[in-house]
């Protein structure tokens, strides 16, 4: 759950599952005359759309932190408890694997990447690899992916997109979609400078795949005002790309207990948020 200041009396809460849907929308519109279309399209879009879907299990009844405030997603493995956090991703990966093994492969990689500085792509992120529970999770996910890869490489629908180069390209794109969707969803209005953590307007310097045989580039999201941004270079198939998602308001105060918070969380006013991404 993304916790953003709204005004002096209210906080704006954006659910991780809604952030995940924005990532899926970015993926769905990825590709134009400069940037290659996703391959395979449906499975990679699905992976982006569901990459944080495990948060649903917690966000249907979220908790406050030790100070009595809603828990922000940054550092959540610590303040939710590693067992809670790791299980959120385990269940999401398991559910997705039952529907689309190729998509689940990337959500498994993403779960590991959140613990390993994006598998080396995002060195500014925390590194949790010294923790025994994290080590077990990573080993478990690697074993799952090894078994899935054997199946994918013998599946006519996926064998041509399951070589090392394509797998790594699609994983980098997954992380781009996540970083981009975080940047979009974790601030309100769009030009707010209140948040001091999370992705930068260059998506943490993520290398962004362009097309086979072309070098990666860096995207810049140049926010213009409260609702609009220019993206350089522009990777989407519609211009402008319109993004809509929902937030909810709760009082900006510490809550005495969980029940008091949930009362405000469930009844909180819903806010429609609309941003646009445009080419220069």
Number of helices: 9
Query: Uncertain runs with pLDDT below 50, 5 residues or more?
Result: none
Tell me the Rg in angstroms: 19 Å
Q: Report the order of strands and helices.
A: EEHHHHHHHHEEEHE
Name the strands of the widest sheet in spatial order: 1-2-5-6-4-3
- How many strand units? 6
Q: Give the overall form.
A: globular
Describe, in plain words, how this protein is organized in 3D.
The protein is of the alpha+beta class. It has helices at about 15-30, 40-50, 55-60, 75-80, 80-95, 100-115, 130-150, 165-185, 260-265, and strands spanning about 1-5, 10-15, 220-225, 230, 240-250, 270-280. Helix content is about 40%, strand content about 15%. The chain has a 6-stranded mixed sheet. Strand 1 (about 1-5) and strand 2 form a beta hairpin.
